[in-house]
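note to self: dont lose this again. the chain is below, predicted strucutre after it. 85 aa total, dont forget to put it in the shared folder this time
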Amino acid sequence: MRRGKPAGTVVRELRRPHCRRNSRRRASRIDEIELNLFVAGAGRTVSDIDLSVISAASGMSADQLADLPGVLVGSPREIADTLLR
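---
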């Protein structure tokens, strides 16, 4: 179980300029960094990914959606490299 501040505290502190330095220092340890990404789809090509529901809701084409960070296109190695960047 995690100890310390409740979730979201660092985000709230980052909004206050006087707390940014201390928050960055606390988050500088790799074990404290959390990646939170909603993945809408993943596949080798855009045509391999069913983006119909998201396309209908957003009014964007599949090609436009493929440019968003939540749509991962490429080989497993390419996707892993993208996430590591």
